[in-house]
Please model this.
Amino acid sequence: MDQNALTEKETEALRHLRNALVHGGYSPTVRELAEKLKYRSPRSAFLILNSLVEKGWLGKRRNGDLQLLRDLSESRSHARTVEVPLIGAVPCGTPMLAEENIEAYIPVSENLARPGGKYFLLKAQGDSMDQAGIKDGDLLLVRQQPDANSGDRVVALINDEATVKEFNRGDEAIVLKPKSENKIHKPIILTDDFIIQGVVVSVLPSTVY
Model:
């Protein structure tokens, strides 16, 4: 379906929803959307949401939260892109790439998300990697792979929790190093009691998206 099939109000609604899902990390309520669209009745916003779902722009996760399935992108007609899932907060015990953890699908240029690989997007939290070019709130493009080379910035699962650190392989152990001036962050020494989810291949600063 072409982007032009959306009405003006649907396009406006989709922009508000994208801002909440991608930047805010939450699924807005019908009442909140009605306020953004300056509707007096939440029913008008409810009807627009239903239309966006029927047209394939929005989906609903198992918990009822909205999910962005397609993204408004000015670059679609100028560059080849692939839809990459944006992963939200990952509850302990839930696989990172489970459907309930996907907040939206974002178009990413094939120059970054190269064909043949599998990718996901993750929003960085904290300052443990600020000296490695990753600031709090940045969007990380991660290539899925189970191993890494020393010096790679990896997303690792430790005790069902995701962390982004510099990967270093030693003779007897793996060290996941923070790269920060904040001394509260310490290296993590591991053997085989963790899982590499992927390697960070690109960082999109929060100031530009």
